[in-house]
């Protein structure tokens, strides 16, 4: 009798797992640049974004 119940039980468990909503990690968004900044601030922002991709220490030096 056990072997006859196993496929139905497997389908029920799989359906229950699919129905549950999956919790996914939220990717942090890009920092937003405030509008109408002076040219120097825009250059610092862009340089910081490029340098951050290379190295964190480089980003600190480029913006500071």
H-E string: HHH
DSSP strand tally: 0
Q: What would you call the shape?
A: rod-shaped
Oligomeric form of this entry?
single chain
Average pLDDT over all residues: 77
Termini separation? 74 Å
Beta-strand residue fraction: under 5%
Question: How would you classify the helix and strand content by structural class?
Answer: mainly alpha
How would you sum up the major sheet? none
Low-confidence runs of at least 5 consecutive residues: none
Number of helices: 3
Report the C-alpha radius of gyration, rounded.
26 Å
Q: What share of the residues lie within helices? A: 55-70%
Keywords:
single chain, 64 residues, mainly alpha
Q: Which helices and strands, and how do they pair?
A:
Layout: H1 2-19, H2 39-54, H3 56-63
Helix pairs in contact: 2-3
Task: Write up this protein.
- The chain has helices at residues 2-19, 39-54, 56-63.
- It has 64 residues and is mainly α.
- It has a domain at 35-64.
- α2 (39-54) runs antiparallel to α3 (56-63).
- The radius of gyration is 26 Å and the shape is rod-shaped.
- The model has no long low-confidence stretch (mean pLDDT 77).
